[in-house]
Design a protein that fits this description.
alpha+beta; Deoxyribonuclease I, Chain A; 26% strand
Length: 359
């Protein structure tokens, strides 16, 4: 009996080692800065100084919808993946919302490409088929990529991306790596590697608009990774300001605005820092929604996150934002809450901004 147990244990260890070796060989090792290919299907007129620009930022949760509580959610549900039917419905729903709003620039987080959890779909290609007449230009950057992840929740490939769609030409684009957890290299290969997707849109009279798209790490007690990622973003935005380059950034920052921490239930507070690291940006640059909006009398209109938790019946916190250079002027903004609650665990944030006039 003891010999059988030893043989079984040895076999298990050998299988585990082989799985990790496979993961290592198939691992993704991005460079600190990488040039990205830009896909444009038709010519487009460049932006004009002083014009109005409508922007949308939306974490679409790889088109999974709201009928699940996944293994990685706050309450650790048992669901591993959505059905093909739900993926199809939510693809159409995301396209419907974008077509109804018709923003000039769309910043999407968590679109999948060749991931087991979403039936190996190329979700950007599927979405572009439905929006080809609106957005001739698109670019994507991976946040999580591996041919094989041995974690039993995944046990297959992952491919999760940031995507920027544009009505206007994208001259060039880059993936900029953000700081990561300081764990071992092998473990890092199997986790998301947060980054910034930077797209440069030419202006008609010369110069560029820098459009940034990101999704930051979740809060980990005792870890400084969110603060280091915010510090890297701050340096990048400060650089654009020094250069005189107008910019805007949107995404899922996984951070609360001022004052929302104490409104959460005690069991929810473990997922956030009491002192939001986001102050590094809101102290310097205009934020949408602003702190007064996100914590004031009309705060419910600015909630952007509807966790996958059957105990909740609607959004209860703000995690998604747009920031922009002081050179741009805000005209209007809103969180789209009507007819979007069942599409993703995040809601779209939109804003109309005025570009700086010709110098």
């Amino acid at each position: 009996m003891i010999r059988l147990l030893r043989t079984a244990l040895l076999s298990l260890l050998l299988i585990t080692a082989l799985l990790w070796l496979l993961a290592w060989q198939a691992g993704w090792r991005p460079e600190p800065v990488e040039a990205l290919p830009v896909a444009c299907t038709a010519p487009a007129k460049p932006l004009a100084p002083g014009q109005q620009l409508k922007v949308m930022s939306w974490n679409v949760q790889y088109l999974a919808g709201k009928r699940y509580v996944f293994w990685y959610d706050e309450i650790r549900g048992g669901d591993k993946r959505p059905t093909a039917a739900d993926l199809a419905v939510n693809l159409d729903e995301v396209a419907r919302v974008i077509r109804a709003e018709q923003p000039d620039i769309v910043l999407l987080q968590e679109l999948d490409n060749n991931a087991k959890a979403s039936d190996y779909q190329d979700q950007l290609a599927l979405l572009r088929e439905r929006l080809a007449d609106l957005y001739p230009c698109a670019v994507q950057a991976y946040q999580w990529k591996a041919e094989f992840v041995p974690d039993w929740h995944v046990f297959g490939s992952v491919g999760r991306t940031l995507v920027t769609l544009s009505r206007y030409p994208i001259q060039q684009a880059q993936r900029v790596q953000l700081p990561l957890e300081s764990d071992n290299v092998l473990s890092r290969l199997l986790k998301p590697q947060q980054a910034v997707l930077v797209s440069y849109l030419p202006l008609r009279e010369g110069g560029q608009l820098a459009v940034l798209n990101t999704q930051l790490a979740r809060h980990v007690p005792g870890s400084d990774v969110q603060g280091r990622q915010l510090g890297a973003l701050e340096q990048l935005l400060d650089q654009f300001e020094r250069q005189g380059t107008p910019w805007l950034i949107g995404g899922d920052f996984n951070l609360l605005p001022l004052g929302q921490y104490r409104r959460l239930k005690p069991e929810q507070r473990q997922f956030y820092s009491a002192d939001s690291e986001l102050h590094a940006l809101w102290d310097k640059y205009p934020m949408i929604p602003s702190n007064p909006e996100a914590t004031g009398a009309e705060r419910e209109a600015w909630l952007t996150h509807f966790p996958n938790d059957p105990r909740l019946d609607g959004p209860d916190r703000t995690l998604d934002y747009l920031f922009h250079s002081p050179r741009l002027r805000r005209v209007s903004a809103q969180v789209l809450q009507q007819d979007t609650l069942e599409i993703s665990d995040h809601l779209p944030v939109t804003a109309r901004l005025l570009l700086p006039p010709e110098s």
